[in-house]
Input
Amino acid sequence: MFILIILIVSLVKKVDAYSAFLKGVKEGFLLFNDVFGSMLSMMFAINLLRISGILDLVAQIFSKGFLKIEPSLWAMMLFRPFSGTASMAVMIDIFKYLGVDSFSGIMASIIQGSTDTTLYVITLYFGCIGVKKIKNSMAIGLISDFVGITVAILLTFLFFS
Output
């Protein structure tokens, strides 16, 4: 149905749909070419942190001394500003091993919905358009992530403990 609507609109407006499609594909490849370097470097950094065990060590330290939150939640909170996929993978592990309706599963869901992948967004979008000086964007983004995570933890303890 969607393809039929596109064809009818292109006939009515007298637009060559195939040429427009090819132009869009070429622009998509150019965008991919611009974004690929930034994405590759971000994925490399995330995998390096994950494989090295630094994030697991930090998560263990935080879980022993602060709020007695599950270590995997700390790992998720540390991954969240870097990569939505990595934090989603940690959240799925929490769901798998602790349960979707567990306290940790609920907290992971609220954190996932309350924050964004700040460093990923800055790297990808600013790198794509060629912005070299990010000024206060990173600080503001990381502060908003911290506030989002803090409020998510407080709301989880307030409503679900």
